[in-house]
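Notebook entry, structure prediction.
Reason for the run: the old model in the group folder had no record of what sequence produced it. Starting over properly, with the input documented here first.
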Amino acid sequence: MIGAEQRPDTLAARAGALFSAYRDGDEHRMGELIALLTPILWHTVRAQRLDREAAEDVLQTTWLTLVRSAESIADSRAVLQWLLVTARREAWRVSRQADRVEPQDFDSDVIATSPDLVPEQVLRDAELGQLWHHVRQLPERCRRLLRVIAFADRPDYAAVAEALGMPVGSIGPTRGRCLAKLRAQLAADPAWEM
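New structure, fully documented this time:
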């Protein structure tokens, strides 16, 4: 049986292949690596309760650190884990320096200050805001897990488990329980339309 880090279809394997190609001189591969991993890094950082601007800064710092440290990473297959750890540590550093700010997934002031928003976009933003309101009501473990795996095309459970400090075998069942809790909350909300 091939280990998770060796299967070419895992997020870690795809990231490792792109990073290896980048280090071998194909600079365009860094753009692909950024596109592949930014969603999981974004939610890893936002799980630390940073606001949007601080999270963007943390991600930029994380990517710059990777470029500067590219040659010091011995095994290119470890780049996903390296990025997750680096992003989380940078987020912790930034959050310790700043006052705690609750993440705002929908800002109602945007409607008043953005006349270009079309009604469909306003409705979609309102629905997303309502959804994230319910996600914030979930237990911390569920919020962290859903933020990380909800935006990965094919989540790499081994990397997710290590990043969140959970056993690999508990990711799927925990995800199922968390989604069931979220569904129950949404079903009980008369304002939520499915």
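Summary: The longest helix spans residues 168-188.
The old model has been moved to the deprecated folder.
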